Amino acid sequence: MRTTRSVPARPVLITALAVATAGSLLLTPGAAGADPKPVTREGSGVDDRAAQAPASATRRALTTDVPTGTTTRAYPRRLVLSPDPENPGDASLKLGLTPYHAIAPKLNALQRLGDRVSVEVTGRSAGGHRLYLVTVTAPETLRQARAQERMRELIRDAPAAAATSREIKRDYKTPVFVNSNIHGNEWEGTDASLKTVERLATAKDAKTRDLLAHSRLYFTITANPDGRIAGTRANANGFDLNRDFVTASQPETRAMRQIELGTQPAVLLDLHGYVNGTLIEPTTPPHGENYEYDLFLKNTYANALGMESAVNALGYTPAKDGVEAAQIPFRDQEEGWDDWPPIFTPQYAAFHGTVAAHTVEIPLAVNNEEYDELPVPELRRRSAVNTAVAGAAIGATLAHVREHRGTLIADQIEVFRRGAAGAAQVPVSAQTVPGVPGIGPEDVYTTRFPRAYVIPPGDARTRRSAPAAARLVDHLIANDVRVTRATRPFRLAGRTYPGGSYVVDMHQAKRGMANVLLDDGRDISGKVSVMYDISGWSLGRLWGATVERVPSGSLRGASLRAIGEAAPVARVPAHGDLRLRLTDPREIAALNSLLRQGVPVRRAADGSVVVPASARRAARTAARTHDVSFTATRQTGTAPLHRLRIAAAVTPGELFALREMDFDVTPVSTDVLNAGFDWSGTDVLFVSAGLEHADLTAPARRALESFLDGHGLVGRGATGAALNAAAGRLAVKPVEGNADANGVVKVTNAGGITRGAPDHGFVYAPLWFTDPGPGVRVEQSYAAGNPLVAGHWRPLRDGTGGPAAAAGQASVVSGDNTVLFGTEPLFRDHPKGEFPQVARALFTVAHSASVKESG
């Protein structure tokens, strides 16, 4: 039976990890092996540091992408890589590991070892570094390579036929994906992968020949070169790439996504650090409810046992090396290492047919405090141990693939067959997943898939926007979800939908991917005591498009056409002044592009903006660039708008979102202000992280107060509310909810700031406002009753801080050239339908302050 243990609340979990880390700073091997159980993933969802990412990294992420289609070629595929300049500051060097600049020469050398190794460049990172994919397989002629692609497509597109295909059973090569270094300061997976590739390139034994004859092995040598070089978890934009798979906002994530779509791996390893002993998935509850968990658990647990045996067989011990025995959370932990959100690499992969997917956390910490404080010889000893452990995990996985490739491919086919047939999920149990110990009712998570989702195209007369619908459809297609478009009006389940509506038929291979993005999700507050990361993420609720869930019905009578992209939205009337709605981030970006050119734009009473007919050419360019629609209007508008210059002490996700909307942003922080910040070029201050009024020097405090005396302030969360109080702006009482709470919430919009916003919001560490003083307006409130729709939000131990306490309370307030948010409207480039609330707030406080000052 599974080992059970009482799992304390998360603050104690963090303390336990902190104690284990502190112990590992001692220089004895035994101290490095301090038991950190119970386990949670490293890295908080709430970032309290002010982002400083360069604008060039944002531009690269917003404009750089990877090809969505590749020409089938034979193997090997030779590519001679030009060298990168030597970088003595590469953080890998201190650990005795491979610096980024040495990877290209190493890959050139590996290709020269024989005919098994191929190298491709799959894109560039936010910081501009090349991303490499290495393929190791037996040579293939062009004809053989085409046959492999044809069989891969048959598995996805016609799984019932694939299940009986003798050719697939005999000839299909099992795809395996090894992803390394997605967290930049978890280095050793890269070196283990390079060593594995080198061994496979030259090995003459029968097992290796058999493996490569029946498998394609794909290695991303470093998924995060920016972080590898800098010694940071995040990329150059400050994004944790292993939290980005819902939105794929970063070029590195899109490159990994495209590898998964193009190779369709049956098995995936994501190599991380550091948990002692080595942590090997599968996970604890709650389990993702949208994938075929019986097939996933069966294969992932079986491969985990092999990795555990291989890691322990290395012979490391707590006394001699500071290395504890490996652990498998499903078997050894009660909770704290879940697979609920699809933001992590292995969990995302499960929706594309990966039936054995693992995060592997190697044991000995060499990052953060350890990197700064431990002697170099001890760091290199640990890195050598970690590289060996990662190599053992890879080797065991390859052995498992060689022995069980038939089962792995059959189960991948079954995943897709269930989706295409609209078959019910199979709940896990001792009968359905024999051989896996400790399966109980706490492991059963299933969902009832709808018959279809319908996404109306939207128009200027609706609350929801056409740009939002188009963006959501394009995102679904990018994630390999099949979308059709109605060529004429149709009826489904007793309702008529307009022609042009998008339809997601849920009888498709990747129905789990579609549902995990579009469904509301579930309130799991009562299921487990703690969640590490986000527990709700519905793009159907948060991206600003109308998404209709159709539980049942027939699509037989609908005239539907398969599409490869959403229909263009861009439109500019031929005559008259123009109106642009501001309910979508694309519309905000279009507005800012016009203001950048000096176009005289005026605000309208309904929250939109009016562009004069004389600027029609500029409007056409903006419409095409941002795919937005202008309409004709007879409104003249009220106050003119000007381009804003924003000083922002915000999280990386918020900084990225502001730049995505084409705002002119200067990152600031406590340190930046203390160094002497020039406020003369700033119109408005936005604060949510990294600016503490009490930590400012006296001159910095006076300069800030002088600026705020005549300018607007937008604050978010506890940090923004604290600055508001210190500056004596809005007379409200901020109330902090449970800091671990997060998810999709129901809200009521009541003011100009939130006009046209979705009636759902997103929270992480939610905040609300009580006791409003004179002049304070409530722009938005949490819904009455239980506002949580999907996620995890419990009261604190004293009964406060829960959703019942927040119900009906103000979540966004305004007044006195100030707006305060208690929600997370810009979280990780995630709730895009909420972005315009922040844009409206910035324009409102900046222009109100300028009017007040000039008056």
Automatic annotation (TrEMBL):
Compositionally biased spans, kind Basic and acidic residues: 38-50
Active site: E414 (proton donor/acceptor)
Cofactor(s), by name: Zn(2+)
A Pfam short name: Peptidase_M14
Keyword annotations of the record: Carboxypeptidase, Hydrolase, Metalloprotease, Protease, Signal, Zinc
Domain Peptidase M14: 96-473
Listed Gene3D superfamilies: Zn peptidases
Domain of life: Bacteria
Kinase recorded as keyword: no
Comp. bias (Low complexity): 51-61
Gene Ontology MF annotations: carboxypeptidase activity
Extent of the signal sequence: 1-34
Stretches for region Disordered: 28-73
Transmembrane spans: none
Family annotation (InterPro entries): Peptidase_M14
PANTHER family in the cross-refs: PROTEASE FAMILY M14 CARBOXYPEPTIDASE A,B (PTHR11705), SLL0236 PROTEIN (PTHR11705:SF143)
Family statement drawn from the similarity comment of this UniProt entry: Belongs to the peptidase M14 family.
Protein name: M14 family zinc carboxypeptidase
Organism field: Streptomyces massasporeus
